[in-house]
Specification:
This protein has 336 residues and is an alpha/beta fold. It contains 14 helices and eleven strands. It has a seven-stranded mixed sheet, sandwiched between helices. It has a four-stranded mixed sheet with strand order 5-11-7-8. The longest helix has 18 residues. The N and C termini lie far apart (47 Å). The relative contact order is 0.10. The mean pLDDT is 89.
């Protein structure tokens, strides 16, 4: 491919002998060859390094030393990246066949900085698809931050991504959110695009995987800490701050954000909208009504259906709300 961009991949790992060979083969077998792979091992005590060394023709740098976890490994790895596009992959996941060529083509076709891709979560052993996930963004950064789901998979402009490193080592699960939010805050949403590729990465779900631990809420303390740091820095309404503190958060996280591009009232409105519906689903109607008032005062732009729901939630007697919620759950419908 003429003027083909170099894709820099960072692969952090530790005691990953069970799955890392499949990860490496998924990179080796790509049709696209303008790739550099940096592997950062945390001092594995199993056969991980032996397996990696079988593929010495695949990686440009291999480091194996004690570290402070995955975030530290990624911070180290990006320092050795020299390409145009940046992505990291976990040692128990694998990249779909020949998609890196498609990624490169998308960056050439439309020179943006952030490519949000779609992934598949699958069950280890059976290869059964559990769900598909996609990193999302909305028309404004104020709506994107509160509604970000627990899956951030993005290819970045490497040069710009480097300006946001190092990532906070106190984060063990949500460092991808820190990078994503930081990138959008610094370089704005006009530089983001959705990929047209059906699946890029396959996320393996097994008892020790981060996907499972996130579903069990371990990872959410990291994400809650990120939300809290943003809200506190903006002196947000105490109701929003208290909500995330009550959920539990990583107390070691303390990042200072550049929030100069944020319309704080709009941000509060989208946070309040999201949390009001959560509180309704838990039958915390008083909290839900207080959050609805914050959303209303924010002047945030909501769909007509959102306002309809808010009016119903705010004025409907609790006995009727409970009945509606019970019927929805019985019929397997979303409580939102």
């Amino acid at each position: 491919m003429k003027n083909s961009p170099k894709i820099s991949l960072v692969l952090p790992c530790y005691n990953s002998e069970e799955f890392i060979e499949e990860t490496l083969l998924s990179i080796k077998n790509q049709d696209y060859k303008n790739i550099e792979l940096v592997i950062v091992d945390g001092g594995s005590t199993d056969n991980t390094c032996v397996i990696i060394e079988k593929y010495s023709d695949l990686y440009t740098r291999f480091i194996s030393e004690s570290d402070n976890g995955q975030t530290d490994a990624i911070n180290k790895g990006i320092n050795f990246c020299t390409g145009d596009i940046f992505y990291w992959i976990n040692a128990d996941d694998f990249i779909e066949k020949n998609v890196l060529l498609e990624v490169a083509e998308e960056f050439i076709k439309d020179p943006f900085d952030v490519l949000c891709v779609r992934n598949r979560n699958f069950e280890n052993g059976t290869n059964r698809t559990l769900q598909y996930s996609k990193t999302t963004f909305y028309s404004t950064i104020e709506e994107t931050i509160p509604y970000a789901a627990m899956s951030i998979t993005v290819f970045y402009n490497l040069k710009k991504a480097k300006t946001l490193f190092p990532l906070s080592e106190s984060l063990h699960y949500a460092m991808d959110f820190e990078l994503y939010f930081g990138f959008l805050l610094k370089f704005d949403l006009t530089r983001a695009r959705y990929s047209t590729i059906p699946i890029v990465t396959n996320f393996r779900v097994h008892p020790d995987s981060k996907t499972i631990q996130q579903e069990q809420s371990v990872g959410y303390t990291d994400l809650n800490a990120i939300h809290l740091s943003i809200l506190k820095q903006l002196n947000a309404p105490i109701k929003l701050i208290n909500y995330y503190e009550k959920l539990g958060f990583n107390k070691f996280y303390n990042k200072k954000w550049d929030l100069s591009a944020i319309n704080s009232n709009l941000l509060y409105g989208y946070y309040a909208k999201r949390l009001a519906l959560f509180e309704y689903s838990k039958q915390e109607y008083k909290n839900s009504k207080e959050l609805i008032l914050i959303a209303y005062k924010s002047k945030a732009v909501f769909e007509i259906y959102d306002w309809y729901r808010f009016i119903v939630l705010y004025f409907m007697p609790e006995s009727i709300l409970k009945l509606i919620l019970r019927v929805k759950k019985k019929n397997g419908k979303s409580v939102y």
